[in-house]
## 1
Amino acid sequence: MKTIAIVISARASYSRIRSALIHLSHASGVNLRIVIVASGSSNRFGNLEDFIKRDGLEIAWKIDSQLDTSHKASMAKTVGLTLLGLTDYLMNLQIDGVVVIADRHETIAASISGSFLGIKTFHIQGGERTGNIDDKVRYANSHLSDYHFVSNQKALERLIDCGIDPTKIFVTGCPSLDSVPVNKFDFEKIPSFTGIGLSSKEVFIGEYLVVIQHPETTSNLKSASQISPTIDAIDAVGIPALWIWPNSDLGGDEIVGEIRKAREHGQLKGVHFERSVEPEIFLRILDGAACVIGNSSVALRECSLIGTPAVNIGGRQRDRDHGSNVLSVQYDSDEIREAIKKQMSHGRFAPEFIYGSGESGKLISRLIQEIA
Amino acid sequence: MKTIAIVISARASYSRIRSALIHLSHASGVNLRIVIVASGSSNRFGNLEDFIKRDGLEIAWKIDSQLDTSHKASMAKTVGLTLLGLTDYLMNLQIDGVVVIADRHETIAASISGSFLGIKTFHIQGGERTGNIDDKVRYANSHLSDYHFVSNQKALERLIDCGIDPTKIFVTGCPSLDSVPVNKFDFEKIPSFTGIGLSSKEVFIGEYLVVIQHPETTSNLKSASQISPTIDAIDAVGIPALWIWPNSDLGGDEIVGEIRKAREHGQLKGVHFERSVEPEIFLRILDGAACVIGNSSVALRECSLIGTPAVNIGGRQRDRDHGSNVLSVQYDSDEIREAIKKQMSHGRFAPEFIYGSGESGKLISRLIQEIA
Amino acid sequence: MKTIAIVISARASYSRIRSALIHLSHASGVNLRIVIVASGSSNRFGNLEDFIKRDGLEIAWKIDSQLDTSHKASMAKTVGLTLLGLTDYLMNLQIDGVVVIADRHETIAASISGSFLGIKTFHIQGGERTGNIDDKVRYANSHLSDYHFVSNQKALERLIDCGIDPTKIFVTGCPSLDSVPVNKFDFEKIPSFTGIGLSSKEVFIGEYLVVIQHPETTSNLKSASQISPTIDAIDAVGIPALWIWPNSDLGGDEIVGEIRKAREHGQLKGVHFERSVEPEIFLRILDGAACVIGNSSVALRECSLIGTPAVNIGGRQRDRDHGSNVLSVQYDSDEIREAIKKQMSHGRFAPEFIYGSGESGKLISRLIQEIA
Amino acid sequence: MKTIAIVISARASYSRIRSALIHLSHASGVNLRIVIVASGSSNRFGNLEDFIKRDGLEIAWKIDSQLDTSHKASMAKTVGLTLLGLTDYLMNLQIDGVVVIADRHETIAASISGSFLGIKTFHIQGGERTGNIDDKVRYANSHLSDYHFVSNQKALERLIDCGIDPTKIFVTGCPSLDSVPVNKFDFEKIPSFTGIGLSSKEVFIGEYLVVIQHPETTSNLKSASQISPTIDAIDAVGIPALWIWPNSDLGGDEIVGEIRKAREHGQLKGVHFERSVEPEIFLRILDGAACVIGNSSVALRECSLIGTPAVNIGGRQRDRDHGSNVLSVQYDSDEIREAIKKQMSHGRFAPEFIYGSGESGKLISRLIQEIA
């Protein structure tokens, strides 16, 4: 019997690993221990706990380690607190393996804790490139970890170039894409949301946009100035939109403030705002969207398989591998508006298999059982 | 005026950067801020503070972050505490650049803190290979850092392979070798030490050995069993030796315990034990030594330039570049004894320039002033 | 020259010590070191930093230690983080005395850090009673501290009963009341605020209320249910009001949520909402108010000297000494409404000297210089 | 079913609560959760874990939170780390009650964590007086806790004077004395110890002394100077002695250093040194001792019931209630020597019931079940 801990620090990270967890939870030789930390343990950033429970999975441990995000020191200290708490848990539970997901800043706490305690450490999504602080964390995670489940051949090659032992790298595809094929747009299956602005039903009834834009922490541009062009462009295009609030990275609060201010000045009247959306529902929404706008990786990853047109703003995803569905633009209101129009007139793209094809959760689950 | 913080976590790390610090301290455009953390702030592991002050340098800040080393969680939690304390300091002082030294486990706190706060982060000694947990930390540090001062061409190439921007990597050599040429063996200049065992003078009067062996944290062999063969071999060879106590890594306490036990059983009568030795004095001692035994990197680095024969035990330095002065053996008393004899009968080797040639502190100081 | 550190964790705490700080900052033998921590270091809870700077005082150090308040563990962990950071600061700066203010949960970090490091620790506002978790913290602070500056004779007697050395307790009155006499209501001196709702000028033009209600953390009633009766009562009374958002204690977020919801449902149209108000301005506003409603201590302390009628809701101030200006009620909309009407029809009360008479900052400053 | 957490931070604390734990572990309605923290989790300070397991009790959780004790900041930071770790545990386990033991510096982490999370907090040994930093912590613990199990009527009265609710204070006696009556001196039942110096058997064969002296952290005298007079006096008296190493408080390391130095200079030849002794065995040894010397509370507490003569050195126990068996002296070698002689010539005292009479563990166990 092997005890495997999965450290999840945000809702988006959960959907990156979800299908693998469901497989692991049914494996007879595995005690699955889901540990939620940092922004994942805080209601302010979408209720991760409920999403996990709705999938029939149990949360084994919760580490309240998210600092108030208006602090400049928030990211570094959240890592410190997560590291302290995680180390207690991993030691006391006699864990055989730790799974570290992708590249959010606080994930480095999991790879340090696992490797410094001498526990087998598995990293998901190594070898990709995005072009910001996530790159730093993702590569640091790869070096600290022992085994690597990567999305594609290109990622594998990058890790080998880094001097990582090739016998410990496995091309599995990314589990986040496992649920793409089965979650098509279906108006009946999209629930009413409770956020503010236009009602969500009013959004989905016809042609609609999806906006999701996080702070670009390495940009010289202030977070507030990063979001204004998008606000103006969405208003100018004039099509209903679902807008997901930004994450808890430094600058997230300023973006929220800017959006609130815009609303008080009468802008964004055709928008429904939501903190977060259940992953499967979100895939259905992406499938039905006329265009996805912002700087979320879903536009490059999930949407490459779905075929939804996307407008990628600024440098947050600069170096990430992507399909022909993505059109990249600067923080410029006119550019964004024109790109949305161009993408909408093109319409749906053909699916591309850049990040896996739908079986990766099963494969990762098997490999972990084998190795741990 | 640029404010540059240097984070030092152990005496050995200080000697890796010392010559660069002395140059920086004289630079007119630089506020140098030496921050000592973790085992560097604890008297239990050699008085780092005094070594620094004796060089005319000032300690700007001290973070007491070393956990009791008998804990299994000590390494991970020491990183957590260091990270929390360092983040406060770097934020409050408005630091322009942070210098991260090499690969000790707690150095990752400095590279996380610097990079997550958006401060320019400089890493020394990236791109080398040693074959244990230090590798993980060293490469993670490289990925988290912005600028890289490396020892040689081979290290540069490894970092480029990792995808690190080649314009930000500089082959400077390692400052730890800057003081090699000027510190020749001279009996008159070696002070009397205060440690236990044989008097130090009795050691240096004739032919002598130097032993310095730290716990190999990734070995399956218990720390206690790692040291026994060395104890037996040193006794068997029967030549006076200077023995430096191990560092604070997990297992260090067990090694200390084993040595104490051996002494109580009448072994190691020809040995003088010392917590640590001032770097310049230590170079003189290495220069005069008949053979250096253990698993310290000095045997591979400094001694490659000095030419002192070395016996390297176990896997702690497995993949580190080294010169022809090094003979590697297993944790086996007979093997160690034979290797010492063989090396002693060979005598001094010709100097090799694998880690720089003596000007690297000056070069690093100039580059930091230019870039920060 | 004595170095004195003052640890401030919230805007309200600052006004408790402000006049003493201004005197200390002019004292020739004192290096004053203002350290802001916890919610005081976070913009989310009113900009403490600006308030301090506006008084011509300098912030020496800032410890970002406020956890996200949606965590249940937020209070305990914020104490832990503050304690770690403060200990680094107090040790490095060679502090001669630490001043601990009153009873907010995170203040215990200051009294632990000071006393465990053997620094003379001064506590302000010991010996009072309020009847909730603040009592626990206030008394713990008294026992951990060495010297005590208390508001009145009754507080002195309570500390003596606790076994505290009577020669170390000084009845100084509370500095927070020092600025009461000089800050009368004057419409011209009240700036326009930038918060939401009714404009602040519309509030102050005629008769107005002031509302300030924090979560009562020891109540069985949910925070959301604690605030609804107040919302209803303020609407029912129908007089313009200035409403200060709640503090960062557990439950503060729920209260904010409830108020936002009420506003979206068309309630509280006659209210101006403000995060926080500069202390001196706030005194002017209290002086002009027809009635102060909620559970802030200003209603019992400052307003006892001003004479402003107050309606005190729930148990948060249960055991606090107060004057005849205070009428206490339950969390009941009708009760609150009737109490407001009754207090308004009574009008201004005569000043009572329960918490000092206006010279306490000067006295405390002298005592600290004498003792430290 | 109630889940009760007991936080134990040192071997000495364990023996203060042991008999209550054994009763609680047999109670059908109780899930007992023993949590070991701080020096209790470190092998350096006596193997607490083994003592607990030998009693058939299980350790539920371990928090490695002891900092290296050579740091000046060690005490404050150990509290910070313990508080962070304990908060995670108490929250995740849904604890109904927390038991806080006595007054060691790190116990304040337990009372903060329990009270700030709103868990019923039980404190043992409140209301006593000893006259040093322990007093501060003990009283702070009392104020932070909800229920109080005290040793005697005098302690009860002191807590009532502090304003603590009399209905929540119970005079139970101290569980540490429960095992006094059944553990008489019996040479056959005292095992051979493994410490250094004279063999333990050589000590117990005839008349012997017991020495146990911790650093007095509030004394102006350096720790090293505190211990020298004792060393000299023990040598002068010339009777075999069992000497227990000091605890991990600040200064403990210096005392250890002084003792080691004395031994290297040929002193203390008639002494057996031991890190710690199993509580029941220790009672047998105290029962047989001619005199107990130092500043441990066992001399005042357990020995008042046993009747063993004691010489209490310095101010560490200054204000603690004690029986006629105790003779107090200064840090003066002559005074100590004379006092030992005087006490030895008096011989055994009559038992006094100052800290309970042997049933207190049972009573505490019942009360906790009733209240939690």
Note: The mean pLDDT of chain D is 93.
## 2
Amino acid sequence: MPREVDVAIIGAGSAGLFALSQVRKQTDSYVLIDGGELGTTCARVGCMPSKVLIQVAEDFHRRKIFEREGIEGAVALKVDIPEAMEHVQDLRDTFVDRTLGVTDHMDEGHLLEANARFISEDTLEVNGEEIRAKKIIIATGSTPVIPAAWRSCAEHVLTTDEIFELEDLPTSMAVVGLGSIGLEIGQALSRLGVAVTGIDQIETVAKLADSVVSDLAIEAIGKEFPLWLGAVANLEMQDGAVKVSCGDQSVVVEKVLASLGRRPNLDKLGLENLSIDLDDRGIPVYDPHTMQVGNSSIFIAGDVNADRALLHEAGHEGRVAGYNAVHENIAAFKRKTFLGITFCDPNIATVGAQLDELNEAEIAIGEIQFGPVGRALIMAKNRGVLRVYANKADGRLLGAAMACVKAENLAHLLAWSIQQGLSVQDLLKMPFYHPVIEEALQAALYNALGQLDVKEELVELEKL
Amino acid sequence: MPREVDVAIIGAGSAGLFALSQVRKQTDSYVLIDGGELGTTCARVGCMPSKVLIQVAEDFHRRKIFEREGIEGAVALKVDIPEAMEHVQDLRDTFVDRTLGVTDHMDEGHLLEANARFISEDTLEVNGEEIRAKKIIIATGSTPVIPAAWRSCAEHVLTTDEIFELEDLPTSMAVVGLGSIGLEIGQALSRLGVAVTGIDQIETVAKLADSVVSDLAIEAIGKEFPLWLGAVANLEMQDGAVKVSCGDQSVVVEKVLASLGRRPNLDKLGLENLSIDLDDRGIPVYDPHTMQVGNSSIFIAGDVNADRALLHEAGHEGRVAGYNAVHENIAAFKRKTFLGITFCDPNIATVGAQLDELNEAEIAIGEIQFGPVGRALIMAKNRGVLRVYANKADGRLLGAAMACVKAENLAHLLAWSIQQGLSVQDLLKMPFYHPVIEEALQAALYNALGQLDVKEELVELEKL
């Protein structure tokens, strides 16, 4: 007789733990199954250690504006890399410990530290044992991609799984893949003294679809370290180092960071034993509002579904999957307005719909270049651009993209506004303090206002 | 025959210039009258130079966390004060020049650089000339208060009118008055090496009505320089310096900064020649939604009305006054949700209704202490608290007060939400990225949610 539970959650990462929080409200009959290292991708090798590294690099980089401010002695500042890495690891451990708080208190009956494999839609094999579950949640996360062609250089290739573990940093590095992870880590390492070359096969960074924003980001970040865009990187060993070629350029480096994306952890789950539909990437077809896989008793949440691989979305998806796993009727939940942030300098953020999803003839694009923005000038962070996309007919905000100081904060204002269906005109009635970076958003909104089909005097809109 | 115009604006500061922008849309028959130095209080001696000084001080202060990050050599950093002050003045001049852009292009018929005085409700005397105006806008701003009792020490007393002009800073200073200006400048000077003593006769800072927030701010800032609260400062000369006594404490300082507030510039306007009502402070009684003084043809906007002496409010009031001065029917305009920010570290911000305006029995107070907030910990800025006030019955947000990192940004999210009448539950449906300071607000909102009379499962609220 297999063991029987109401719910089995495969994966104790962020999505799995959020699912667990919902499941526990309704039943004690559950198992959480994880055969890897506990502590979540976010805390162990993702959001958290990268932000610590970025903070150290930013604080060190800031010395470059000291002279204009009358602060002397910047040239004598040095980073002790092993000390800096230890700081990264110390804080990382603090954050990992917090996530372990949940699993630390779970008994052996609820937490199974092993891999799970589907035998059938309602039965898993875990460590030789069969577990039958009324509902099963797949939340197995993802793994960094390393091209098979790089195998000969494997010893010199790092991913985020390894980089935060280093006691010292290489002197030179190629960062291949300039999405959020590559840009963040590449810039941080460059600022800490590593000779970084950034490479991506496409002509943009951080997946930006707006070339005005992308061009500015590439120009600003490209001043700190070379960015080679538009050609695939090829690796070969050369005298114990790696020669990285890209188009007609090449560089010999000590190490290569593979930041080419992450692959869903699905291959060992035994999906072939299920009668569920897979998409062309091999990912179970699911409803993003219910997280249900087809009409099955299986749910899928977090990075493993390869959509919106972000902590806050994993949390949302986990909650929805967990809720639906313990309620009779499957409920559909609203998705949040898209919000993506790359914590490089300038910050890059995208909110809501992007240019490649919009019909440019139907939208007004409100733009502000940060050059003269007062507060940005004071902060010496006035290389930036922010673009808001609004429906030309009525001013409703649809999306935004930006590469600028404090984009992480401006993006929240915009995401919250878009989620509420607000218009350019609505936002211009809000208070914008002075002198703050939010005034740049105000300027972009005024710029959009002038392009709308509706010609409204702003002051009129504030009449009681 | 007196000269006749449609509109006379007295004061070419922020409020006056915003009024002008509205007036110009309807008529060319106007005069802008200003007998002082042009360039706005904000740009010359207010928001802008103070933010530059704060930025330099913050960048220098940041060296204190270098050691934990592995950055060596912080002890050798020094500030060259004359260089730093020159930087403040250079940027200040840039900002002043921008505001002069408007008046630089005005001819002598439109810009009168002289003082104005009311002879009657529709007639001003300017430089011996009479000007009759259908509508008159008072936008004369304010002046720092210096107690009469300090006259014997006058040579050692500075205000914001003088401090940004200094070529060097004093070695010691008492900052009397710990509202926004005193706190901002006091902390900045302290960080730049001036031995600062902060003094206020009341037991709070930055006008905080919430003692939890106030206590934290006082404790955090009080670690950088002494704060003497709750007794009036008395000044007397002693051996060429100033002895400042406060309760049973005293200190001898080179200079005193009077940051006790600002007095409306009304005394030379000849208000005694008008039949308008004045309040008990001598300020014309006006409607804050129309900016009209009584039923007269006079409007009053900006710092001179002693309400919300903030740039963005002066701008709003100026626009409203200007609009109403050139339209037949007086229109009432919505006021913006209150938003006040003190740019000290931690930032202090108040939004909407404050505790002393609320009935504590009817509200839920959602609180977050920043100690464990991930991003704040990474930034080494995790000394902070944020409190949101919500209607207990339905969760509607009423106000907030905070002393924490990035309060300036969080306050915008909150002000915009309050202005829209959103609830705690509404906000918790919004995206909160990770790891960002906005997550602290999320935690405070969850804390408030648990105290509401309505017991709603958050996840349920997101159902489609």
Note: The radius of gyration of chain A is 24 Å.
## 3
Amino acid sequence: MDPFVLLKKDMKEKQEQVNIILDRYLPRKDEYPKEIHKALRYSTFAGGKRLRPYLTMLAYQLYKDNLDPITPVAAAIEMVHTFSLIHDDLPDIDDDEYRRGKKSCHAVFGDGVALLAADSLLINAFEIITYAEIDDALKVQFVRELAQESGIKGLIAGQMLDIESEGKKVDKKTLNFIHNNKTAGMINIALRFGALGAKAPAKELSVIEEYGSKIGLVFQIVDDLLDIEGSSAKLGKTTGKDEAQGKATFPAVYGVEESRKMAHDLTEQAKTAISTLGDRSLKLRILADHLLSRKS
Amino acid sequence: MDPFVLLKKDMKEKQEQVNIILDRYLPRKDEYPKEIHKALRYSTFAGGKRLRPYLTMLAYQLYKDNLDPITPVAAAIEMVHTFSLIHDDLPDIDDDEYRRGKKSCHAVFGDGVALLAADSLLINAFEIITYAEIDDALKVQFVRELAQESGIKGLIAGQMLDIESEGKKVDKKTLNFIHNNKTAGMINIALRFGALGAKAPAKELSVIEEYGSKIGLVFQIVDDLLDIEGSSAKLGKTTGKDEAQGKATFPAVYGVEESRKMAHDLTEQAKTAISTLGDRSLKLRILADHLLSRKS
């Protein structure tokens, strides 16, 4: 069977597992006060790919079959991701009306509700880690590392520099800073948490992180290329907007051809790195190819 | 000596201890990207009363002298408080230009920077708990409870309902919901964390919580009264604004005289409750009187 078909089946199954956990830990949408509960669930279940939790689960399954202990951690990473998208879309930052093929949170519920809904998702992410069936020392480590990776030395720094760079000509160093922090860092930590949760040996952990840092960049480069080439219908968000806003993108800094080549080379390097773990890394290799060739 | 003078001296000393911890755990203001680092420190050191961390420290000192193990936890609560003020002041919510006697964060740094600076303070709060010198089980408990109290079932719910109620005539139930969640809850958890950190006996913990829930409401009632009576210069924020915005306040729902009486009665009840802990609760009793009679 086509390896991509197999992968998509696996992704779909794990997506559903994550959705069950998200549904379990998010309050009902009819709870009081209603608007914010509706907003929370609207953005959480707006059809995301669940790439980050999928990575956590794949890394965990390099070592262990039963995903139950790690799924809340995977869901926590997705919550932080959704939080960052909602705040990014606010008029305070990108002012984007569409996300994942639907109206963005603030476009439906208003700025104040969207702001607070995202805040509560972020807060919920830290709470949900405490419910994972892992030992306390690991919970504390996950809380600390998730905070570091999503905070002022990670995701937030990337978003901040993204704002500052708008309309300016950015250099390679700035571009790398933005995307290492904003995208690659969270993708990497998703894999790292899966591996740490399964008590991966240190040497293998560093292989997994090498793979993660490379596919994280590929993910962003392909995102930037799709923004130029893709159609709004497939991507589910406003396309061509990066260029219009003068955003710091790989094609803008390296050119389209060079960006494509970078994505290709990084994918090969990621696959080579993870291959050292043998047959059990097959899904991660197929995933790397999928992230390179995806059209949405 | 005047008990208030003694109390103010103690508050000032503990404020300084909290400031040292905040300074230690927040990144330098000249770090990259600069704007957000400046914004973070601007709001954190804009002259807050540090009431919440002070409560954590007083509750802890009912049992133990050396505050070092609990001070990061106290600082974490202050970070969450500052986060909530910055987001509250944004145009998305209250659109307030002044806070603590200075221009509010977004008025100085812009909406996007203020939004992200507050996000990173919130995230940092969870991180800093992991550095406290307490056992892992307690760190996990604090992360979970801080998330619960500051999230969609606590502080955020209070803020949300505060927005929804603007310009409407609110009933007593709604008013209580808002302020139990928005103010009293965080004040209560500040005390609770101090007591839990010092391994307070369950029976005494419930006395401390009874005291906390009452002074939490007193704090809010007095805030509402000062908004009507106080001068902007003393309070350091725009006064008379609650009424202008049609905010849900105690004087609006109960009238000024009844609100004053409520604050007075709750203070007496709080003092009676905490008196059962004997002489060591003296500072908490003086503090209750101080919160009732404060003019700013």
Note: Chain A is about 70% helix and 0% strand.
